[in-house]
Amino acid sequence: MAKKADDVSTVAGVVDWLTDSSHWSGSDGVPNRFVQHIGLSAVALAIAVAVALPIALWLGHVKKGGFIAVNVSNVGRAVPTFAVLTLLALTSLGVSDTSVVLALVLFGIPPVLTNAYVGIREVDPQTVEAARGMGMTAFQQLRRVELPLAVPLVVNGIRLAAVQIVATTTIAALVAGPGLGRIIQEGFATQNEPELEAGALLVVVLALVVEGAFAWMQRVVDPVRRATRRTPGASPPEPSLVGAASFVSSDGDTAAVRDGIS
Amino acid sequence: MNLRTGNCLEANSWICGKFISTRQHELMAALGQHIELTVETVLIALAISLPLAIVVRNSRQASSGLLGVSTAIYTVPSLALFGLLVPITGLRPATVVVGLVLYSLTILVRGVLTGLATVPADVVDAARGMGMGKLRLLFTVELPLAMPSIFAGLRVATVSTVALATIGYLIGEGGLGNLIHEGLTNYFKAEVLTASVLCVVLAVVFDALIVVIQYLVTPWRRRRTT
Question: For chain A, what is the domain count?
Answer without folding.
Answer: 1
